[in-house]
Design brief:
By secondary structure, this protein is α/β, with parallel strands linked by helices. Helices cover 29% and strands 20% of the residues. The chain has a single domain (17-188, 236-294), classed as Rossmann fold (3-Layer(aba) Sandwich), CATH 3.40.50. The chain contains seven helices and twelve strands. It has a seven-stranded mixed sheet with strand order 4-3-5-9-11-12-10, sandwiched between helices. The longest helix has 26 residues, at 212-237. The protein is globular and about 45 Å long. One of its GO terms (molecular function) is cysteine-type endopeptidase activity. One of its GO terms (cellular component) is cytoplasm. Belongs to the peptidase C14B family. It comes from Wallemia mellicola (strain ATCC MYA-4683 / CBS 633.66).
Length: 306
């Protein structure tokens, strides 16, 4: 077992960014959201069950108390205050992070529809409350990844853990975290080369001929600005808190299945083991590969505790 000590660490080009791991020995709070969109053309199956399974996993395996877990589901068994409307989701997220402090452990789980919408820099990923179609304007119905980051990540102090799981399509950067890890435990660099070369071959003169000199300049400039933008984004979205996010595509089998793979397992997963367990569970079934992202660089061999 490889457990972490909660001490301040630094990283960055000038060691000017400070963060702190959580020992997860303080208060524990969780928010589980499962939306089936019952009775609509967007109806899903299993999302409410996902939320129930995660709740059970947190109580049985992670030491959470039932009174400290808020459950939002579009179920007739729950009253209006526990329906996953946009208003209730915002209230619940603010409840989750309120009063957070060093070594606390918070848990957020969302199972439902996800999507993405174009913005000035590319695309924002989104999640959809149960009432997203009933709100006045279509684009106010969803919740953007920038907003999720502001609500769930930005308020957290150094050394507070937030573990988040998104079981939805287009959920890879749902919290806008700056570091994404591959199955070897290495940080994935943004594919600026692929993005820039795609723009190169699409940048043509009106007669269909490529302008080689202009495009060579444009290509090299895009590489430089793309890498610079990535460094800038890491700094903007960096958090001194200890935020870990798992994301997976929504379908009949989800990350909820894999996180609770074996509640009788006699030892903890490491981060890398859990990521690969989720991927193995879902291999060959989905186009979107599950991934792990974080608010700071992490040691993927550390035990996963929440």
């Amino acid at each position: 077992m490889k457990r972490v000590k909660s001490q301040q660490r630094t990283f960055g080009p000038h060691n000017n960014l400070k963060y702190q791991y959580s020992e997860c020995t303080g208060n524990k709070k969780a928010l589980c959201i499962g939306i089936n969109y019952v009775g609509t053309s967007n109806e899903l199956g299993g999302c409410q069950n996902d939320a129930d399974r995660i709740r059970e996993f947190l109580i049985k395996r992670c030491g959470y108390k039932s009174e400290n877990i808020m459950l939002l589901k579009d179920s007739k068994d729950l009253d209006e205050s526990r329906q996953p409307t946009k208003k209730n989701m915002f209230k619940a997220m603010r409840w989750l992070v309120k009063g957070a402090k060093l070594n606390d452990a918070l848990f957020f789980h969302y199972s439902g529809h996800g999507g993405r919408t174009k913005d000035l820099s590319g695309y924002d990923e989104t999640v959809f409350p149960v009432d997203f179609q009933k709100l006045t304007y279509v684009h106010t119905g969803h919740i953007l990844d920038d907003t999720l980051h502001d609500e769930l990540v930005r308020p957290l102090p150094a050394g507070c853990r937030l573990t988040a799981i998104f079981d939805s399509c287009h959920s890879g950067t749902a919290l806008d975290l700056p570091f994404i890890y591959d199955s070897n435990g290495d940080i994935k660099e943004p594919d600026v080369l692929k993005e820039a070369s795609g723009e190169l071959f699409s940048h043509r003169l009106p007669n269909g001929m490529i302008a080689p000199l202009h495009d060579a300049y444009y290509f090299s400039k895009r590489l430089v600005t793309g890498k610079a933008q990535d460094r800038k984004q890491k700094k903007i979205n960096f958090s001194p808190a200890d935020v870990i996010m798992f994301s997976a595509s929504k379908d009949t089998q989800t990350a909820a299945d894999a996180v609770s793979i074996d509640q009788n397992r006699d030892k903890d997963f490491s981060f890398i083991e859990l990521l690969n367990a989720i991927r193995s569970k879902m291999e060959g079934k989905y186009t979107q590969r599950p991934q792990l992202s974080s608010s700071h660089e992490i040691d993927m061999d550390l035990d996963f505790v929440c």
